[in-house]
Amino acid sequence: MTIIVVGIGADGMAGLTDESRRELCSAAVIYGSARQVDLLDDTVTAPRHRWPSPMLPALERLLDDNPAGDVHVVASGDPLLHGVGTALIRLHGAERVRVLLHVSSVALACARLGWAAQDTEVISLVTAPVHTAVRRGGQAVVLSRGATTPAELAALLTETGRGPSEFSVLEQLGGTGERIRSRAADAWAAAPPGDVDDLNVIAVRYLPDERVV
Description:
Blueprint: E1 3-8, H1 18-25, E2 30-32, H2 34-37, E3 48-50, H3 56-60, E4 71-76, H4 84-92, E5 97-100, H5 105-113, E6 121-124, E7 139-143, H6 149-159, E8 166-171, E9 179-184, H7 185-190, E10 200-205
Parallel strand pairs: 1-4, 1-5, 2-3, 2-4, 6-7
Antiparallel strand pairs: 7-10, 8-9, 8-10
């Protein structure tokens, strides 16, 4: 038995490679978050199971709960970039997990902003506290927990003397509802928009830059 992890973007089925589409259309069972599962169209006929909370026990039991054949998992973007693919490989071994990549939100953010990927740090706030995304300089793409993360990070940057930082919130990257809004972190903190989408990443160029280079 194999776990096949298929990355999917905000553009849904339209953005999948032929291989990823074939895998999903031939699947016997599919797991994923509610948002990712809802991106699948009617050409995917397998039963769809949404991850429970907490998620880890379900990942651990995935093969035991499905002894009859392969299990398919839909994941956001690149499943090996702070994603479920990494957790599944750690739990079940690389020989039992096959990953079909989609372009990541980090790659899309760098492309939209003209940033070199090798010069950009990736920070995840999906499970980490907001203060872990504060830096003395450089630039980073920050993976959000949800719609309130940008305001929380902007406020903290302002409180820690990083208010002039260049601060961009990129929502629904790659999808029809894509939107990018940029301003200084302190300006965002002073008037955070109330309509930020849950699916967002934050790009920060930390100012003042106090690094010794």
